[in-house]
């Protein structure tokens, strides 16, 4: 259910855009959908994830600027800003705070050597950077209709690709098997 609620704002944004062909109405719907997502997370879990808060505030700021200035470029920059913030968070975590944020988030589920966590963090950081750059290429190189479609499918496809690459890396390196054995031994 949580994944559905996370996907709902973008799905509504795309549906409303293609129904109305009005980027401003669909931006307002996206902003409202993010408010619903925040309310759902807080109501269900009594907390809101950092990821959801980051996305919420970027949507509110860039969506608000889109509506205030009647300029679609603000909302088109939103996916890039979100991806680059996640990229920066991973890099700052590693090089400034000396903490691997992926390990902090997933360490209770996977027992991996630090070098593997570092490789994953760098890989995902690179992935977030590329996803942000691709969004700009699509936003400025293609029609608004194409960008809206890309926003729905592209982000999902890129995430799925990086998850697949991560799983293949962990399986080929024998790390998932080791993690499962560690979990089995702890139970």
Total DSSP E strands: 0
Largest sheet: none
Distance between the termini: 28 Å
Strand content: under 5%
Radius of gyration: 18 Å
Q: In DSSP terms, counting alpha (H) and pi (I) runs of 4 or more, how many helices?
A: 8
Give the % helix.
Answer: over 70%
Number of individual domains: 2
- Indicate the low-confidence ranges by residue numbers: 182-187
Q: What class would the helix/strand composition place it in?
A: mainly alpha
Question: How would you state the average pLDDT, rounded?
Answer: 92
Shape: globular
SSE order, as H and E?
HHHHHHHH
Put the structure in a nutshell.
The protein is an all-alpha fold. 86% of the residues lie in helices and 0% in strands. It is built from eight helices and no strands.
Account of the protein in words:
By secondary structure, the protein is mainly alpha-helical. It has two domains: 1-70; 72-187, no CATH class. It is 86% helix and 0% strand. The chain has eight helices and no strands. It has helices at 2-20, 23-45, 50-69, 73-95, 101-106, 114-141, 144-172, 175-186. α1 packs antiparallel against α7 (144-172) and α3 (50-69) runs antiparallel to α4. It is globular, with a radius of gyration of 18 Å. Residues 182-187 have low confidence and may be disordered.
